[in-house]
Amino acid sequence: MPYYAGLKKIQDAATRKRTVDGLKRLRGALSTALPARTASDTLLLATWNIREFDSGKYGYRAEEPYFYIAEILSRFDLIAIQEVRDGLYPLQVLQRLLGSWWDFIVTDVTLGTSGNSERMAYLFDRRKVSFTGLAAELVLPKVNGAKTEPVQMARSPYIAGFRAGWAYLTLATVHIYYGESVPVDPRRLEEITAFGKTLAKYAGKLSSAPQYEPGGTPVRDNLIALGDFNIFNRKDVTMEALTAAGFRVPEALQSVPGSNVTKDRHYDQIAYFKELAHLTPTGKAGVFDFYEQVYRLEDEALYAAERAAKPGRNFKDWRTYRMSDHLPMWIEFGIDDGDAYLDSLS
User: Fold this and answer.
1) What domain of life does the native source organism fall in (predicted)?
2) Residue ranges of E strands in 165-251
3) CA dist 180 to 15, 189, 294, Å?
């Protein structure tokens, strides 16, 4: 549960009441839609592209959306976040709201126009999840026989290692190049293909799980690709490029709606490489539509004064710069293999 004391600092009484009412609706909806977090039995893993977090493109976020975003994130244990902009203020605010036991790791700023000055981050609750020390940005290697270096991805994928319960995880989060608004943009397809093939080829070298002797094979871990792939449809060749490399979307996520606001495009994905170790899908997964509770269409008139500061966007678009144009995607895993281990000894 986030700290709510900061609500008292919202000077405008109407804004404070609106925020409190929104939090009440949000809390109820989250409790209904998501399983409760546990101390040690399960891991709630999520990915969320939080739009322009926070560039001030249409005005910097005020206190209200930060309370909503923190409330949503507090229901997960480990979250990959895309589209963090160059300042770390947004992550620092979230950390203060969530509590000192939450931590984050983050990339440097992506240079170049196609990278949009973005970072990627992992936010995690240290009471459940520990960082193993592995943190790296993926650079595509030169293919054998190639005369030129490969074109790097617009935003370097961010790889990091974690442990939760019995499971070791190597996460690789991406924000794939969008390009043209068509199902198969050539560069988008090239990025997903190169990303999947590179991870698959070097999977054994990416683990930060324990090695118990020099040159020994690490304990089995779980290589998971997650983030904003900008995939329009699960049947597109962009999705096939990921699965052809050996990545599998858990069954519980194969039937969830799209992760854009209108839920008709499957931009975001969570997929594991080949098989899982000490990480068991519980069958619970989904995307969470926060717009049913906050920044609702019927609330448009309540934000007229705030929108007037930077006019030019309709309410449906403007609100995505307060919250996001993506919905968070999540999945629950079991991480306690104690009974299975004891059974193997009997």
Assistant:
1) Bacteria
2) 167-175, 222-228, 247-248
3) 39, 12, 31
pLDDT digits (tens, 9 = 90+) for 175-213: 999 999 999 999 999 999 999 999 999 998 999 999 999
Is residue 137 within 8 A of residue 122, CB to CB? The reply is no
Residues with Cβ within 8 Å of residue 311, at least 6 apart in sequence: none
Expressed as residue numbers, the domain containing 268 is: 5-345
User: Nearest-CA neighbor of 227 among 185, 199, 205, 206?
Assistant: 199
Q: Phi, psi (5° rounding) for residue 144?
A: -55, 130
Domain count, the chain: 1
C-alpha dihedral over 85, 37, 246, 110, to 10 degrees?
A: 10
Q: Is 145 exposed, middle or buried (0-12, 13-18, 19+ CB in 10 A)?
A: exposed
Lowest-confidence pick of 41-45, 113-117, 296-300:
113-117
* Contact indicator for 26, 290 with CB cutoff of 8 Å: yes
Residues in contact with 27: Cβ distance below 8 Å, sequence separation at least 6, in sequence order: 71
CATH of the domain at 49: 3.60.10.10
331 closest CA partner among 290, 281, 279: 281
Token match 């683990």: residue? 207
